[in-house]
Amino acid sequence: GSADIQCDMLVLGAGPGGYSAAFRAADLGMNTVLVERYATLGGVCLNVGCIPSKALLHVAAVIDETSHMEAMGIKFEKPSIDIDKLRAHKDKVISKMTGGLAGMAKGRKVNVVQGVGQFVGPNHLEVATADGGRKTIGFKQAIIAAGSSVVKLPFVPEDERIVDSTGALELRQVPKRMLVIGGGIIGLEMATVYSTLGARIDVVEMLDGLMQGADRDLVKVWQKFNEKRFDRIMTKTKTVGVEALPEGIKVTFESAEAGGTAPEPQLYDMVLVAVGRSPNGKKISADKAGVAVNERGFIPVDAQMRTNVPHIFAIGDLVGQPMLAHKAVHEAHVAAEAAAGQKSFFDARVIPSVAYTDPEVAWVGMTEDEAKAKGVKLEKGLFPWAASGRAVANGRDEGFTKLLFDAETHRIVGGGIVGTHAGDMIGEIALAIEMGADAVDIGKTIHPHPTLGESIGMAAEVFEGVCTDLP
Ligand code: FAD
């Protein structure tokens, strides 16, 4: 059929998946069109996700750090917080990053079309543009990177005191009392920010523990360190009612256990709903292109990120868990390279996860809890940060570094770190797993002293029985 724009490669959605795919496709010589409904590139991650949350978490970490320094003889005044200025800083961080992307798109001659895209055929996408017009884009190949949206709770009313992660990141005000529904990474990161800024916070989680997916021993350290940060952490507790009253948001709880007791209903000034994200697969008329979407809205793909339609690929939050930016970027490169005829496959052994809380919790590969559940026999090397000169010098020695090895080959299969800067260190363990390193390889690698990263080498030595002088 006729099209207003004709291209080799159409990319739908400009999040970390979409922009990475478009840039790689353009670099490989394809005439590329990138369709995005919002005015800025970067998707959830840059605009309302990873980056703004980290801008605020940095501020929280600095404030928290000062409070730990009284024990070192350094007492700071209570910080005065100019929330308008903080919000402006966060917005500036976003615009710097999204502006950088716009420049990179331009430099590569990627044609960015703003509007909402819907497939109208196997080689055509229709875009409803911001000015009310319509554009048809004809494509030879396509990469769908339409991402995910927040999951809503059906019984939660519309009220400006009730927000999702996007609303929380807007940072309109700091409430006195706040409830965070959902004890996952996103909820706990926002809880960290708001509590440091002065809110009293309750966290409610239906399951039996926070930060599902991470080993319980890591989470336990985080929880102990944060005992005073929160009024209460209610696990195994369901939120069953949310009412917007003039005096506050009234929330009702129920025990998730048969016969269990739940807390009394509570009044909050602000409620953050952070109960997960669901893929946007059903919102793009994928069926018009013949692309299969499963019941939950995910688009099934093969190891080259190809959908059931050979010239259409899908990547990122849209194709499955874990919904993380670094996974989306990696998949984007595979898809663009495969579309260019290269033999690229997604064969990453592991994808690291990080909660950028205080302390940070990071893990990669197999966890102990997972090994137990699967009956896999693992052995571990654990290095407590109380034995790390650097952690002690920092006054932050609550953490530990744990490496998990195959019981027979002693090759590393997983690892976890809880402590400050854990997220910055977990990449080394991911590399070791990808390289098939064993405990000796890691233990004999000279790490700089005194660093927190050194704890990875020490954990391997603990496992080898070389390092025994632990406190
Ligand atoms: P998205 O980023 O969701 O991008 C999809 C894009 O497609 C969007 O811009 C959307 O507007 C556009 N789009 C969708 N449908 C259409 C359509 N029909 N027409 C036009 N455009 C369309 N991940 C991490 O790895 N680290 C973190 O620290 C982290 N922190 C997070 C914090 C928060 C608060 C949230 C919400 C998420 C966080 N994530 C983090 C997750 C991360 O943001 C996502 O995994 C990542 O953005 C997924 O990238 P994507 O390209 O698949 O999709």
UniProtKB/TrEMBL annotation:
Q: Which cofactor does it need?
A: (R)-lipoate; FAD
The entry's free-text remark on the cofactor is: Binds 1 FAD per subunit.
Establish whether keyword NAD is in the entry.
yes
**Stated family:** Belongs to the class-I pyridine nucleotide-disulfide oxidoreductase family.
**What name does this protein carry?**
Dihydrolipoyl dehydrogenase
- Cite any additional comment in the entry: The active site is a redox-active disulfide bond.
Which reaction does this enzyme catalyse, per its entry?
N(6)-[(R)-dihydrolipoyl]-L-lysyl-[protein] + NAD(+) = N(6)-[(R)-lipoyl]-L-lysyl-[protein] + NADH + H(+)
**Keyword Oxidoreductase listed:** yes
Q: Name one GO biological process term.
A: 2-oxoglutarate metabolic process
Gene Ontology molecular function = dihydrolipoyl dehydrogenase (NADH) activity; flavin adenine dinucleotide binding
Write the Enzyme Commission number(s) for this entry. Answer: 1.8.1.4
Q: Which organism is it from?
A: Noviherbaspirillum humi
Q: Which residues of the full protein are shown?
A: 120 to 590 of 595
Q: Which keywords accompany this UniProt record?
A: Disulfide bond, FAD, Flavoprotein, Lipoyl, NAD, Oxidoreductase, Redox-active center
